[in-house]
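Attaching the record inline, Q. Sequence:
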Amino acid sequence: MKKIAAVLILALLFLLGFSFSATVFSEEEIEMRVIQGDGDHSLIKIYTPTNIESIYLEIYHMESRFLAGIHLNYHTVEKSDESTKNVFLLNTGVLSGKKQIHFKLFPGTQREEIFRLRDLEVIEAAAEAAMILQESKGTQVEEMNRLKVMSFNIHHGRSRFGAYNINDVIKTIRDHEIDIVGLQEVDRNVYRSRFEDQIKKLSVELDMYYVYGPNIRILGAEYGNAILSKYPIEDFENVTLPGNRREKRGLLMSKIRVNGEEIRFLVTHLGLNREERKKQMHAIDQFVRFLGKRVVLVGDFNTTDSSIDFYDFKKYLIDAAEVFENQHQHTYDGIVFKSRIDYILTTQDFKTMHYEVLDTDISDHFPVIAHIELSE
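Structure, as predicted:
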């Protein structure tokens, strides 16, 4: 009897386990949407449950003609009130302008999902971005001409020697008359930075518009990237990049209107692990290619430009430091490690007129400045 009971229990557990697996499998929802950009630029977003870390996608034309098979091993993360989803990115450039496309998607399970391009929901890029009311009036600049842009890891408002000095950050931006700045390691309501809302303080003191992209939230405290601009920020989106669970990383993207001219200003702070950075760079690469033109990407990449993962960026982005052959000047001033890991990159429709690194102790990173203008 005991053996029979044991067998029955094992069978019941097996059936329960099978039933549970079947339920989870059936409740997995895969979605595809097209984010429509300017002209023919579009981005396909593939939404999956968070347990799916990679997918294989087959692309067909006219139902049967095989075009490509693509392994997507990197993703961003999007949160809503209802759920959290992994988001895999695919630029429509791979479709070569073809319309009658269908996809077979294999999300790491035995089944396949079939989607047709003509049936996908199309969302305008502007509607996809989150909007907030700016708390600062900002200063309108009357001419496009030359923009002064900056990338600055402010080390949560502490100097290289540990002194709290957010006012020195303000002074540096003001004294150099910066038009748009991408900031990393910005605190909001954190003990180590005296519970200040750092980006709001910077915005008020400098009379600039701002957006904030927190990547870490703990008990009301926040930490992340930010953008300050003398020009109106029309919309923005904060994307969670792939990486480890210990410290989330993000890409803060904004659309800024400069007297009728629209530019995209992006700031990021990449991870410390090489494999992590590789995935993050792949994700950023998809967004930059989607935007296509008038893009400025700045940030702390935590790697040198000699990294093989940097090569994709160099195919279509200009490194402001290289224009002036200043790529050997370090931007991180650590006690042991000194290197150039902070960058200002632009699409080729910008001309870099000047580049400099400010040698200062107000952070463990040096501020990086470039003067850029739109090419004719």
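Residues 335 and 364 are 9 Å apart (CA to CA). Residues 7-27, 127-142 have pLDDT under 50 and may be disordered.

More tomorrow.
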